[in-house]
Amino acid sequence: MWKAVLEAKRVGARAFGMFLRSQRSWNSKSLDDEAAEKFQSTCQECGFESCYILPHSPYLMNLGSPKEGTLLPFLLSDSKSVYFPPYPLPFISCCLDVFLKSRAMLVEELGRCKQLGLTLYNIHPGSRVGAISVTECIKRIADGINYAHSQVPDVTVVLENMSCQGSTIGGHFEELREIIDHITDKSRIGVCLDTCHAFAAGHNLADEAGVKLMIDTFSKIVGISYLKAVHLNDSKGEVGCHLDRHENIGQGYIGLEGFRQVMNEPRFDGIPMILETPYNPDFEDYSTEIGLLYSLCS
Ligand SMILES: [Zn+2]
């Protein structure tokens, strides 16, 4: 994990994002103290403060999952017996529904942040999977976050805006606001603005007026004090396409002029800006895009 810190330093980054476990599995090994200490000391040596490091949740997590929590009796084929709770732990984990597993995962992930000395944790709010109302889904997401807050202190959960693709929650700023309204400890909730997602959701970030309008709208609906980070991605799809398809900076429909405005926007000062752009064989590594973005700053 500490190698991610060195890599961020090597490519000239001043902030970075990372996954704290495998992105596609519910289970993961616990983090040993030695690795956590090594991560913290490397951050210190490389000059990265925790407010510029934004870990990202695994894609499996869905705090808005509509499936009800049913613990089904577990049939053991060898003994032909039906066991009721308490089950041995591995059995529980395969019976629990996505909501409960997501909630447990969030607790575990915030615990990892604590262990690593990190203070921010980015999540995709969730999806109603077409099965429940937006309001109901928002309530579930907020419940999950409130629960995780009650289990792990200090770490701020950062909600990422979405592209309005399918049943995902968070494409409209009003939905982010509504989640925040349900959070008990508002000092530990924030938002990360993803430029590709915002563009796909209908905010035209290709020029100065569009960037200003998006931030004004965000300030009015959510409140600029909740803005904790920006994800910098160009968009493969046109404005309002609702598709979550990231493109390299300057090569999509947002384009360089849009990113010039984003990079020079004073309301984005002092927060981490993180690239999530696709691999590009023409680029050496992220240093190419980082250099390009710095060159846009006036
Ligand atoms: Zn993002």
Automatic annotation (TrEMBL):
Residues 101-293 form the Xylose isomerase-like TIM barrel domain. CDD domains: AP2Ec. GO terms for cellular component: mitochondrion; nucleus. InterPro entries: AP_endonuc_2, AP_endonuc_F2_Zn_BS, Xyl_isomerase-like_sf, Xyl_isomerase-like_TIM-brl. Coiled coil: none annotated. Its cofactor is Zn(2+). PANTHER family: APURINIC-APYRIMIDINIC ENDONUCLEASE (PTHR21445:SF0), ENDONUCLEASE IV ENDODEOXYRIBONUCLEASE IV (PTHR21445). HAMAP family: Nfo (MF_00152). This is Xylose isomerase-like TIM barrel domain-containing protein. It comes from Leptobrachium leishanense.
